[in-house]
Design goal:
about 0% strand, elongated, mainly alpha, 27 helices, about 675 residues
């Protein structure tokens, strides 16, 4: 780097960089450092440019790895950065752009080198690279302070203390990115890392008291959704000898402050309408998710998770003491609005899941909102476009619905919210429908998609659990929603008959043939389908037993397709649950026969509404209330840590990782 570089290809010839990585130690008082960190870098706008930059830095970093034990130049660069950041807050207040610019450039160089170091050496060896100082060949000394820990604490202080302004946006982004890179050792290990020097510094060291302030700042960075400021007018124009990413500046003159943002959509399948110009917001959210999912250390629970579990609303004036360490207050209304707006990205959905699952304060607040449709609609849209989303994103959206449906007031209120003209629902024009009916439609569509494509039992279970939780509070179901409930049952019935026929044909085959080996598969398939059918019958029964008089459309659909249920009347798995359906079908069929033949649709509906009032409720057999609660599986980190890091890997916000080096997940996962 330095003043005279104009092309990435020139990096290897750059005199300042050659001195940095060379065999000679450079004193921290040498004017060299001022020259080294006085450069301006024009942003790459895609991952290809970020890849080019990394490929140019790798050979230089390798030479530094070899020479640094003797020269200590990397540690000197870190100390130069630390000396520049001591007055950073005052520099910001005084609008001292030169100071901020040079601190930013030093940090940018450190994070570029660290990224290569981490891919080339163990964490222990990385720690050593920070300890080497200018000594005779083969010897080293160490400060009383651990330089790696000091740098990490410095980065945390920078993030939480320096205000977010146009002139500080870039250095704040670099600070967040550098912490993310330091934690990226996990990418290069298949197993989950549980004992790490870097984790220890964050969870047990000098950074620990800063936990709540860091979590709060990262959340506010996400909430604010600040766009990357435009580059200012440069005092010195780029060199005209061919252009390129780098250009020179007269030494000591600060101009462009904006660097290395590879601007792209977030998540593993970016969508065209995602906002690409929010690097600090996106990177802050990724760092927050990584920190929240760090494993507990022996005798040291993850403080970031504790902070996320316990923070409160700024409007909460209760003076009840909290037993949680690291708690803080944040504006729930602003957080809710940001979460509603950002659900197109995997990481925003994962944050919403994390908060709903782990923080009772935020869950209570969200469930008390009178505009829940603003949160639920984006989640339904994720599920509706299931074929365009990765499976993890779909799971998170579905589990969010399951958590919400655990609350009875939510299940009642969604049927009171009337929506008009749902443009993204293309199967049928929905000019007016309740949020509850739309939720049912989307969940049923997800089940049907899963039956024909992925055949994932876990997805089925969670979809049915959400419907079951809602079933007792079904109100005024839309005609189309009622039809789809019965249509799903018809599909399951057809599938049941097909598998039963295949199993029967296999049994008729001669014993000892190879075909016999497929018998267990049929038995398993049949068992799964019968479990789902049983669940669907329980959902229909729950609605009839609790709110039949509120759902004439469901009774109509049930009567219209009554022959579907005939075969299950005597089936040993369904006999008990079929009693109520039989009674309802028989009761209403009798009233329709009394009303005469050739009845219009309107007349049939009128008879059903009158019958619903007359139906003796005590004739319906009581069943236990259908209630399902989401519980994380044992060792959730085995799912969440690879998922979070796949989001970091795929977001490419200012970062590029070579796929061949990644061990934590396969490249087609997610």
């Amino acid at each position: 780097m330095g003043a005279n570089t104009s092309h990435i290809s020139d990096l290897s010839e750059n005199k300042n960089l050659q001195n940095l990585i060379g065999t000679e130690s450079i004193s921290e008082n040498d004017p060299f450092w001022n020259q080294l960190i006085s450069f301006t870098f024009t942003s790459p706008t895609n991952s290809a440019d970020a890849k080019l930059l990394e490929e140019a830095i790798i050979p230089l970093a390798k030479i530094l790895i070899e020479n640094n034990p003797r020269t200590g130049n990397f540690g000197a660069l870190v100390r130069i950065f630390l000396s520049r950041t001591k007055e950073l807050k005052i520099s910001t207040e005084c609008q001292d752009q030169l100071f901020i610019w040079q601190a930013h450039n030093a940090l940018f160089m450190i994070r570029c080198l660290l990224k290569v170091f981490i891919s080339q050496m163990t964490e222990e060896d990385l720690h050593l690279q920070f300890s080497y100082q200018q000594r005779e060949p083969g010897t080293c000394t160490s400060d009383t302070e651990d330089l790696l820990e000091e740098m990490m604490c410095n980065l945390v202080h920078l993030i939480i203390d320096v205000p977010l302004l146009d002139i500080t946006y870039s250095i704040l982004f670099e600070a967040v990115t550098t912490l993310l890179i330091l934690l990226s050792y996990q990418l290069f290990h298949k197993e989950i890392l549980r004992d790490s020097v870097i984790y220890k510094f964050l969870i047990q060291g000098r950074c620990l008291p800063l936990t709540s302030r860091l979590v709060k700042t990262l959340l506010y960075n996400f909430i604010r959704q600040e766009k990357c400021p435009p580059p200012p007018t440069h005092i010195f124009e780029p060199q005209t000898d061919g252009g390129g990413l780098f250009y020179g500046l007269a030494s000591g003159v600060a101009s462009g402050l904006w660097t290395v943002f590879t601007l792209g959509g977030a998540g593993s399948k970016p969508t065209p309408d995602q906002e690409p110009h929010l690097p600090l917001s996106n990177q802050s959210l990724l760092l927050l998710l990584v920190l929240a999912n760090l494993t507990d250390m022996l005798d040291s629970p993850n403080p970031f998770r504790q902070a996320i579990m316990s923070f409160k609303n700024t409007q909460d004036t209760s003076s009840i003491p909290t037993s949680h360490p690291h708690t803080f207050q944040i504006n729930f209304n602003s957080l809710y609005t940001a979460l509603c707006d950002q659900q197109k990205s995997d990481q925003a959905t994962l944050l919403l899941y994390t908060l709903l699952h782990q923080n009772t304060n935020i869950r209570t607040y969200m469930l008390s909102r009178t505009d829940m449709e603003n949160l639920v609609m984006p989640i339904l849209e994720i599920l509706y476009h299931v074929e365009d989303r990765n499976s993890h994103h779909v799971y998170m959206a579905l589990i969010i619905l399951l958590i919400l449906t655990e609350d009875d007031s939510f299940n009642r209120s969604i049927h009171e919210v009337v929506l008009k003209n749902i443009t993204w629902y293309s199967e049928r024009a929905l000019t007016e429908i309740s949020l509850g009916s739309l939720l049912i439609l989307v969940v049923i569509r997800t089940i049907q998609f899963n039956m024909t494509r992925t055949r994932d039992k876990y997805l089925h279970t969670n979809c049915l659990a959400a419907l079951a939780n809602m079933s007792a509070q079904f109100r005024s179901l839309h005609q189309y929603a009622a039809q789809r409930i019965i249509s799903l049952f018809a599909l399951l019935s057809k599938k049941h008959n097909k598998v039963l026929e295949q199993a029967t044909q296999s049994l008729r085959g001669p014993f000892g043939t190879e075909d016999n080996s497929s018998l267990p598969d049929y038995a398993q398939d049949l068992n799964v389908i019968e479990e789902v059918i049983r669940m669907m019958l329980e959902i229909i029964n729950s609605c009839l037993a609790n709110s039949l008089h509120h759902n004439p459309n469901l009774v109509y659909a049930l009567l219209y397709k009554r022959e579907l249920f005939e075969q299950f009347r005597t089936h040993p798995s369904f006999q008990d649950i079929m009693q109520n359906l039989d009674m309802v079908i028989g009761f209403f069929s009798g009233r329709l026969e009394q009303a005469g033949s050739d009845l219009s649709v309107e007349r049939v509906q009128e008879v059903i509404k009158q019958g619903a009032v007359a139906l003796p409720k005590d004739r319906l057999k009581k069943f236990p209330e259908l209630k399902f609660k989401y519980v994380e599986e044992d060792q959730p980190e085995e799912f969440f840590i690879p998922y979070v890091w796949s989001l970091v890997f795929n977001s490419r916000v200012g970062l590029y990782w070579a796929p061949q080096g990644i061990e934590l997940f396969s490249m087609d996962s997610g």
